[in-house]
């Protein structure tokens, strides 16, 4: 059994693809945070929830369920007619 339930996670995003993408990106950030702890860099955001889970993906799903991590839609650039990209050189 997955904790938090998939139904609860899907209520926070608009599609399964968004859930997978958001969870994977955050899991990579959490993993990088734990890997850089001994180096003293402090440039990455630590996990936002207190968790007993040890795996970064589980931690990221708990953050999504707690509304600590939210998906922000990215707007695609609008192409302007009549304007072509000219290569430099």
Write up what this structure looks like:
The chain is mainly α and 89 residues long. It has a domain at 6-38 and 47-65. The protein has helices at residues 6-10, 16-35, 56-65. The longest helix is centred in the first third of the chain and has 20 residues, at 16-35. Helices cover 39% and strands 0% of the residues. The chain is built from 3 helices and no strands.
Structure summarized in a few sentences:
The protein is an all-alpha fold. It has helices spanning 6-10, 16-35, 56-65.
Secondary structure layout plus pairing:
Layout: H1 6-10, H2 16-35, H3 56-65
Helix pairs in contact: 2-3
What key phrases describe this protein's structure?
89 residues; mainly alpha; 39% helix; 3 helices
Structural class, from secondary structure content?
Answer: mainly alpha
In percent terms, what proportion of residues is strand?
A: under 5%
Low-pLDDT runs of 5+ residues are none
Mean pLDDT: 85
* Element string (H = helix, E = strand): HHH
């Amino acid at each position: 059994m997955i904790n938090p339930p998939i139904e609860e996670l899907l209520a926070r995003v608009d599609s399964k693809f968004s859930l997978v993408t958001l969870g994977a990106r955050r899991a990579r950030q959490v993993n990088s945070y734990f890997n850089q702890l001994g180096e003293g860099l402090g440039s990455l955001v630590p996990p936002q929830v207190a968790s007993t889970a040890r795996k970064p993906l589980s931690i990221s799903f708990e953050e999504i369920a707690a509304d600590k991590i939210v998906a922000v839609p990215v707007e695609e650039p609008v192409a302007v007619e009549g304007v072509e990209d000219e290569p430099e050189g």
